[in-house]
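Second attempt. The first submission of Bee-milk protein had a stray character pasted in from the spreadsheet, which I only caught after the job came back as garbage. Lesson logged: always re-copy from the clean sequence file. Corrected sequence (444 aa) follows.
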Amino acid sequence: MRMLVLFTVVVAAAAQNDKPKPHREQFRVIYEWQTIDFEWETPEDRETYLNETKYIPQNVLISGINYYEDKLFLTLPRMLTGVPATLATIPTNQNDTTAPKLKPFPSWSDNKVGDCAALQFVQNIEIDRYGVMWILDNGRIGTLTHRPDPKCPPSIVLIDLKSDKYEMERIPLPLDIINPNTTYLNDLVVDNRDGDYAYITDNSAVDPGIIVFRRSDKKIWKLRDSKSMSSTTEAAIFRINGTTVNLPVNIDGIALGPQFLTEDNQVDRTVYYCPLASIHLYAINASILRNESLAEAGDGSLRPYVVDLGMKASQTDGMKMDSTGTLFYGLITNSTIAEWNSTAADFSVGQRTIARDPNYIQWVDRFTFDDRGNIYVVINRLFNFVKNQVSTSDVNYRILRSTTGLKSYVHGEDLIPPSGHHDAAATQTVAASLILLAIAHILV
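This time the job returned cleanly.
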């Protein structure tokens, strides 16, 4: 499988060489906040929340971001107390303010703490090509406090944004796979093929891995590889603008590459991931993650299929792939936004800095694309937040925007295998995976 991934890069590069490069613009600040405020139902509600410490402005952090129909959806993980809503929206078009108030989504009641029909702790979301929002709800709040509280089961929540009702479909994760006291549903990508799959990073401190969720039958399994999914001691220290923080965080960022045809004419995709406390980028084929038998085999079963693509200049939090195979990611301690065209060059030589500023780019978190060729990125100074050093007189959260001329990976091209090859190819791929796994265990 290692050769398969590399072969794909070479073939795709040849196909991309003749395509014109999209116009690029520098990143610009479109929104910035010192602290986050909300569109309250009444002024009295705001005062009540403040008086009862249900709203503590310096404890509200913007983490994730996604776009749909002229709205930006922002996630506000309840790492500390005093976060009144964990998912909210703002408009994409700047109006009379650079610090708009956030509107809880779907509603205030759908963000109520302790109500297991509502959202409790949303770290990240994704919106697929059909307008379905996939929400990771950890269920456990206060993760940066001395006593995290598992209010509700960790769940995947689905909302059809094409419907005005915004009804939430909640799928609790099975407790025999997911520990509600230790799991941390961090980020996800959605693969709208064969019944719709989500590949989710769980950066649990005790059991990191990739969770696979198949929407068609609500089946869930988890795969582990301690070598590529665990933090490294040498990368756990982050130094940003004079501040040092120790964050030995496991598998974190994840991205999904374009579809490609394998040598046996099966449609596949490459999943990219990295621990937060690491400078390596790893890759594995989606077909391997879909193999439930590898999950049952336990830690190490993925090792023969994981590719170490090489090193980055610094650690990375969130990352995002566009529809053509260009990966956008942050280099945290370098105050840098970088890109890599996965179809044109190996990672070791193809990385490129596209923005660097120690004042405006302080901890790159998540990215998203709109439908007009723009990319957005959240900057949130997370290093100050985790050390309880947020100054309400400073700008702590920014959203930057640049034009790339492209869209998100969810809108990438669909490939169709040659007639009569799809089912046979899938069977052969699974069989080959099991054979390689058996050989690997014998060699060990």
